[in-house]
Amino acid sequence: IANYIQSKFTTPDDRIRAVFYWTTTNISYDVANKISLQQDQVLEDRISKTLKSRKGVCKNYAEVFSDLANKLGVETVIIRGYTKQYGEVGRISHAWCASKISGNWYLFDPTWAAGYIDGGQFKKRLRDTYYKVQPQEMISSHMPYDYVWQFLNYPITNTEFTTGKLLPSKARKYVDFEQEIAKAAMQDEEQQLTASSKRIRENGITNNMIAEVLSYNDRRINYVQEERSLEQLNLILKKYNEGVAELNQFIAFKNRQFKPLKNDNVIKNMILSPYDKLLWCQKLLGNLGQLSDANRQSVNGLQQSLNAALQMTIEHKNFVYQYVSKSPTSREKMFYKRVY
Known about the structure:
The protein is of the alpha+beta class. Helices cover about 55% and strands about 10% of the residues. The protein has helices at about 1-10, 10-25, 45-55, 60-70, 110-115, 135-140, 160-165, 175-185, 190-200, 210-255, 265-285, 295-325, 330-335, and strands at about 30, 55, 75-85, 90, 95-100, 105-110, 115-120, 120-125, 140-145. The strands form 3 sheets. Strands 3, 4, 5, 6 and 9 form a 5-stranded antiparallel beta sheet that branches.
């Protein structure tokens, strides 16, 4: 679809218009699944399902619109929030899009533009009201959870949106939303979620939808931290196994009274290598972040094994340093002082 639009239209304005028209006219609102969260599917699968069924909810409209626009080189983001119609705030979350065209942000709601629900049935009716809307106009009906996506230097609060009673701009906090968006682009997912949650809380928690988003963000942050900790744990396990294998090789060599003979530096390196690896593991293991109780129990078991291996390595390292400091005759006697 993107390739076809690209072949027919050349300017960003014409291309975004084609994306808007295709999305709104080819997808019907899925009334039966309007409160479905679809958390179990990845983005590509959701888009594929929407294109095949030609049905979806607001999230699916926004994902198709955003994916097509970005494929055509028009920077586009999905915005999540809630809405207000006829003075009443909606009870379920909503999703719409914003595109940056010629240096300016414009808003699009392909769901509301596609039609309306009448008697439990979706009726198609293309409405340009929600095409390329200025931020100061869209804010009357669409409230992002994160105020950055209002694209206003003086964003309104959730209370102002709900009541319709707006404070003067001077009474509101100034926000350089372009700077915040650029900063977010340089952050990882955890940093983005943490910063977004902070802004959401700043703007007031006035309904359950906002509270649910914050709860989801917290769960997602925990998940990201857990995944990062597990990646680090796997790396520690790899290094631990390498260190133990090298330690066992050293012990076998030592049991042969360091024969065939090697120079002192080689012998020292044979014990220093596992020592460095196990010491590194110990330091990282003590700084692991978020982990589930089950994984934390595994870490405790590894910690005990690691401490024992490291203590053994230290003893062997001390032996080696004493060994290389002595004469050849005295070295031989060291192997009979203690049993290793």
